[in-house]
């Protein structure tokens, strides 16, 4: 499938692997892909993100992703579901950090690298790449661009899509910017 990726989409995947390596994490996940998307310039996804006002808020997005990692990767929807069962996630995280140090749940996601030297992708990241192919095909595109990765991120349930939505980046908004609906279109 990687042969279908445009230069921009390949740069996002490579950038995500770089984020994973720099943070010492074992697996490349959706958050790494989102951070790599935010680094792009001059691409269709960067146009959409800029049009939706996300360009200047990269640090805020990174903080939101870091906070979710601190919660062990659980989204607010997960926390709300636990709260419905009478489980206070904030209290659990606090107790774990008292016993094991700040960021103990985030640190549990770190580990060694496979003997090949490559960091594998999480199931969620692999699903995201597959969904980006479906998104490209649905738009009549034979190749997967970084805009398709962005669209796939907006609909994949979890922390990355939640953070994007919190900053006004939804599937509908990206579609409107890229393919019409009264706003400027990316070329």
TrEMBL record:
| Keywords attached to this entry | Hydrolase, Protease, Repeat
Biological process (GO), any one: proteolysis
Q: Which residues form the Clp R domain?
A: 2-187
Annotated signal sequence range: none
Q: One Pfam family, short name please?
A: Clp_N
Cross-referenced InterPro entries: Clp_N_dom_sf (IPR036628), Clp_R_N (IPR004176)
Query: What Gene Ontology molecular-function terms does this entry list?
Result: peptidase activity
Tell me the protein's name.
Answer: Clp protease N-terminal domain-containing protein
Q: Which organism is it from?
A: Streptomyces gibsoniae
């Amino acid at each position: 499938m990687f042969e279908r990726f445009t230069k921009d989409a390949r740069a996002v995947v490579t950038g995500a692997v770089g984020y994973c390596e720099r943070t010492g994490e074992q697996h490349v996940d959706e958050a790494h892909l989102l951070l790599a998307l935010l680094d792009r310039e001059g691409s269709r996804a960067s146009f959409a993100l800029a049009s939706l006002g996300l360009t200047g808020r990269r640090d805020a997005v990174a903080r939101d992703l870091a906070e979710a990692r601190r919660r062990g990767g659980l989204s607010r929807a997960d926390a709300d579901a636990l709260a419905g069962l009478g489980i206070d996630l904030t209290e659990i995280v606090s107790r774990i950090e008292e016993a094991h140090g700040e960021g103990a749940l985030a640190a549990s996601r770190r580990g060694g690298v496979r003997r090949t030297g490559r960091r594998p992708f999480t199931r969620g990241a692999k699903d995201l790449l597959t969904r980006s192919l479906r998104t490209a095909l649905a738009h009549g595109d034979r190749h997967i661009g970084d805009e398709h990765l962005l669209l796939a991120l907006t609909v994949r349930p979890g922390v990355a899509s939640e953070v994007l939505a919190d900053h006004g980046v939804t599937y509908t908004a990206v579609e409107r910017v890229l393919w019409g609906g009264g706003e400027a279109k990316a070329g």
